[in-house]
Request: fold
Amino acid sequence: MTDDQDVPRVVSASREIAASPEKIFELIADPAQQPRWDGNDNLSAAQEGQRVRQAGDVFIMTLTMGAVRENHVVEFEEGRRIAWRPSEPGKRQPGHLWRWELEPAGDSSTRVTHTYDWTLLTDSNRLPRARRTTQDRLMASIDRLASIAESP
Reply:
């Protein structure tokens, strides 16, 4: 077993995408779009009509293994930043966070940063999966997001 002292608990990946922040943010803030670009291959489906509009919103996602997660939005700035903490329905949030930050980079591109933060994660059953969420997996999500956002 890996010693958690040797594993970074905040992992990020960034790149530029040739699309506007608004177009990219729409793909992130609409949970029904998330399975299309999920680089962890963990998301199966979300009902239409759950577009996030503010911190405090909660959206429901079904995972590929069939489990359901409530995602509690804790940071939100339209077109720029969104972050959520997942939990099992009706249960305490175990302490991990997914964040997306978008920064305009010229006339027609956006710097996208995706972060997974598990510094507060205490559920030992979730630690192995958290350890496997590497920069490469985050970049896979950004790359898939780019391929969708950059298409006409």
